[in-house]
């Protein structure tokens, strides 16, 4: 059996931990050519949508290949946020009036970002960003503008916005651990909108990582 059920009762183990173990085993076996791409996608759907421990146990019950040190190191590299010391940037101001402003790629994230947006459009994409601080504050003054924030799943996001005929939607689940960056968004929005979204869903991220592992172990993407 792929998931060890000989120790603590499987139902008493943290559910997210068991889910991650099942997904790791799916990726490991797919990347070594033990299961097909179709089987991997089908089983990944089951693991992603599972609501019980037994579903996770069953979806990998016939898989025997366990994640090794190489896999764990690669996973840590891909799913951990990047920090960089030095060249410390404490704050940054973004002024957007009747225009658009976009931050994306491998940009250095300061400790504080102040956004003044008047009838404009601002997008902050943290999916490839390099963090210098664990706690980041985005202070927003939004007047009839739109602010779109894209984050990877290992970054935690907290929104403390005050809206006046405006809207705030935070669709990013806080899945990062204690060492993960935390972005706190505070301020106000008047006749404007703030949307926080994941850059990619967890399933998309795991699928891309699985294809990367497959190439690393010498198998081409089918």
From TrEMBL:
<dbReference type="InterPro" id="IPR024425">
    <property type="entry name" value="LiaF-like_C"/>
</dbReference>
<feature type="domain" description="Cell wall-active antibiotics response LiaF-like C-terminal">
    <location>
        <begin position="111"/>
        <end position="180"/>
    </location>
</feature>
<dbReference type="Pfam" id="PF08044">
    <property type="entry name" value="DUF1707"/>
</dbReference>
<feature type="domain" description="DUF1707">
    <location>
        <begin position="16"/>
        <end position="63"/>
    </location>
</feature>
<protein>
    <submittedName>
        <fullName>Uncharacterized protein</fullName>
    </submittedName>
</protein>
<dbReference type="InterPro" id="IPR012551">
    <property type="entry name" value="DUF1707_SHOCT-like"/>
</dbReference>
<dbReference type="Pfam" id="PF09922">
    <property type="entry name" value="LiaF-like_C"/>
</dbReference>
């Amino acid at each position: 059996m792929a998931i060890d059920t000989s120790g603590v009762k499987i139902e008493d183990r943290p559910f997210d931990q068991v889910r991650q173990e099942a997904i790791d085993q799916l990726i490991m076996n797919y990347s070594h050519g033990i299961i097909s791409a179709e089987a991997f996608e089908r089983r990944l759907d089951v693991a992603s949508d599972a609501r019980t421990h037994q579903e996770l146990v069953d979806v990998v019950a016939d898989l025997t290949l366990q994640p090794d040190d190489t896999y764990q190191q690669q996973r840590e590299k891909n799913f951990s946020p990047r920090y960089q010391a030095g060249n410390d940037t404490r704050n940054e101001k973004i002024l957007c009036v009747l225009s658009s402003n976009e931050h994306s790629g491998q940009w250095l994230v300061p400790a504080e970002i102040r956004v003044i947006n008047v009838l404009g459009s601002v997008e902050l994409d943290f999916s490839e960003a390099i963090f210098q601080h664990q706690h980041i504050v985005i202070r927003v003054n939004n007047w009839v503008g739109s602010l779109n924030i894209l984050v990877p799943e290992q970054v935690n996001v907290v929104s403390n916005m005050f809206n006046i005929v405006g809207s705030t939607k935070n669709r990013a689940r806080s899945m990062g651990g204690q060492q993960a960056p935390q972005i706190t968004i505070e301020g106000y929005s008047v006749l404007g909108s703030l949307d926080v979204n994941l850059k990619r869903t967890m399933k998309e991220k795991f699928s891309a990582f699985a294809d990367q592992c497959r190439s690393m172990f010498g198998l081409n993407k089918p």
